[in-house]
């Protein structure tokens, strides 16, 4: 029987300079030495999948706290890894704005790369990571329509304008400010007012909110209508 391996790979997304970015690592060792890939690695015998994903996130990027992590999909094409039959379980991770990543011992470099550059074909990733990345991006974009997931990109307290900026960065197009404000503040349980204000967006002070306990937005905030 042919031996096979189990790995985890991570689609780690954040917002930088009002654009959606993904975390990539430059591979230090073969196969695909010197090429860029999603962070990830082998699952250890004593680990469950989520534990392995968190460990790889810390080892390769020094990011480990304040992360929304969810299982994305499983990828098992027979020839996806030239080292042998490998099944990978991909995870989607969303993080608030952070500094420059730090590459782990098995990576030469790590960087936040604009998603738009990858979608334009300016860089190809190792293994089948282009497909995994596309699935992760679509998962994030879709879930913003019907869940409060956008708040995972935000600091603990944020304004409606900051939240709208997250939607615009992930979806890649502007939204009507008044329509968006009405929708998110009208969805009971989506946002909880803190009673404090901020001038971070310029102009007059804006109300600060935290994420509420709502799980599903009804009606959804659709990409087409904003």
UniProtKB/TrEMBL annotation:
GO MF annotations, alphabetized: hydrolase activity
Keyword Transcription regulation assigned: no
InterPro entries recorded: NUDIX_hydrolase-like_dom_sf, NUDIX_hydrolase_dom, WH-like_DNA-bd_sf, WH_DNA-bd_sf, WHD_NrtR
Gene3D superfamilies for this protein: Nucleoside Triphosphate Pyrophosphohydrolase, Winged helix-like DNA-binding domain superfamily/Winged helix DNA-binding domain
UniProt keywords, alphabetically: Hydrolase
Pfam families in the record: NUDIX, WHD_NrtR
Residues in Nudix hydrolase domain copies: 1-139
Residue intervals passing through the bilayer: none
Name this polypeptide is given: NUDIX hydrolase
């Amino acid at each position: 029987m042919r031996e096979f391996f189990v790995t985890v790979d991570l689609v780690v997304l954040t917002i930088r300079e009002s654009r959606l970015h993904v975390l990539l690592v430059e591979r230090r060792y073969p196969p695909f030495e010197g090429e860029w890939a999603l962070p990830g690695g082998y699952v250890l015998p004593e680990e469950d999948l989520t534990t392995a994903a968190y460990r790889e996130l810390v080892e390769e990027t020094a990011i480990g706290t304040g992360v929304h992590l969810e299982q994305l999909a499983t990828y098992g094409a027979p020839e996806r890894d030239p080292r042998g039959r490998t099944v990978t379980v991909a995870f989607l991770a969303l993080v608030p704005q952070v500094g420059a990543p730090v590459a782990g011992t098995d990576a030469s470099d790590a960087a936040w790369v604009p998603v738009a550059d990858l979608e334009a074909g300016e860089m190809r990733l190792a293994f089948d990571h282009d497909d995994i990345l596309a699935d992760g991006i679509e998962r994030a974009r879709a879930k913003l329509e019907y869940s409060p997931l956008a708040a995972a990109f935000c600091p603990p307290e944020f304004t409606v304008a900051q939240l709208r900026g997250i939607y615009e960065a992930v979806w890649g197009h502007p939204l009507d400010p008044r329509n968006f404000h009405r929708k998110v503040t009208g969805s009971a349980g989506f946002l909880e007012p803190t009673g404090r204000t901020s001038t971070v967006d310029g102009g007059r002070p804006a109300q600060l909110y935290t994420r509420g306990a709502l799980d599903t937005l009804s009606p959804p905030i659709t990409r087409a209508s904003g």
